[in-house]
Write a structure and sequence with these properties.
By secondary structure, this protein is an alpha/beta fold. The chain has 13 helices and 14 strands.
Length: about 350
């Protein structure tokens, strides 16, 4: 039987942000804890992109629960394939191309793209288990940042600690410290006078005169969207996944604009927690040209009426569908060749 929901993450054992193995281990432990409790018919697809040769692969470096939900599949994209892309010498992993590889191979009716240092809340998985997703919607949440040093507690204390100690939240209208967020009721009253502080503010302004699509796009929750983006497998196919750019920024928020032009946005009222970490590596990575993104999205929207909102020309080739990639089912016995 095919799973109802596929969780998709991209990772490599390179200690990104510091203590990466500890953070991904907590992600796995929490995901299994709540999916098991609510018997969520699910799978976890891990795309291991460009694995470092000097470190053990993730199938060996992470402690994977041997039974229950979700079922785990690890798909590996080798170093030689990574090196075939522009900017491969500047970026050790193309996060969104890697996520597309997992989304293209996911077997769930709905697919949730995440990052492997986030922590699903019990209320979020309880909602998942009710199977109330709509084919015509995409789903977002607010992300709450937590200091990972505070999370070295027994499992039953983990979520209370997150609720009481988060220090920053990423909402549709911007990112706010805990003290700033206490002014949220006042912000709602003043919203007509305020400009969004989120990543999409500049892009939204470029569509101020774009007609009907811009009204929906103005409400798109693009803040920290790389950590949580959920929609049906069919809609991922129609949107050709994430734009397959070999740069660093604005890729996830661009998908928000494309999805908002076509689908109904649902912002779920359940928290997603994030283990905060260093981003020093980002300074060396090439940034996406925001002006180019705006022009390309405008062209896509002007086409209108098509089945696919294809931004980067990948069309049916998004997610490396023809590549023969090694795949392991956890608990793994031996590697097998994927289609």
């Amino acid at each position: 039987m095919e799973p109802y929901l596929s969780f998709v993450v991209a990772a490599r054992n390179d200690n990104y942000g510091g203590d990466f193995l500890q953070r991904i281990q907590l992600y796995v432990d929490v995901l299994f804890r709540w999916c098991g409790k609510y018997q969520l018919d699910s799978e976890l697809v891990v795309v291991e992109w460009n694995p470092p040769s000097e470190r053990p692969p993730l199938r060996e470096a992470v402690r994977w629960p041997g039974a229950g939900w979700p079922r785990v599949r690890i798909v590996q994209v080798p170093q030689e394939m990574h090196r075939s892309y522009p900017n491969s010498d500047k970026m050790p992993m193309f996060e969104y191309i890697a996520k597309n590889v997992g989304l293209r191979r996911a077997r769930g009716r709905f697919c949730l793209s995440m990052n492997p240092d986030t922590l699903v809340s019990e209320s979020l998985v309880r909602f998942f288990s009710k199977k109330r997703f709509s084919e015509g919607s995409y789903y977002r949440v607010d992300r709450y940042d937590v200091d990972p040093s505070l999370l070295r507690v027994p499992p039953e204390q983990l979520e209370p600690v997150c609720r009481s100690s988060w220090f920053r939240v990423h909402r549709r209208d911007g990112s706010f410290s805990r003290s700033e967020d206490r002014l949220r009721p006042l912000r709602k009253l003043l919203r007509p006078l305020l400009h969004p502080r989120g990543m999409l503010s500049d892009v939204r302004q470029s569509f101020a005169r774009a007609g009907k699509p811009s009204a929906r796009m103005a409400k798109a929750h693009g803040n920290a969207s790389g950590d949580f983006f959920l929609m049906s497998a069919g809609q991922w196919e129609a949107l050709c996944g994430f734009p397959e750019l070999t740069t660093h920024s604005h890729i996830d928020s661009t998908l928000c604009l494309l999805a908002a032009a076509k689908l109904r946005q649902v912002i779920l009222p359940y928290p997603l927690y994030h283990q905060e970490h260093s981003r020093a590596e980002h300074a060396q990575r090439p940034l996406t040209d925001l002006q180019s993104i705006q022009q390309n999205v405008r062209v896509v929207l002007e086409k209108g009426g098509g089945r696919s909102l294809d931004l980067d020309g990948t069309s049916g080739n998004w997610g490396l569908p023809a590549a023969r990639l090694e795949e392991w089912v956890v608990p793994a016995r031996e590697g097998t060749s994927c289609r």
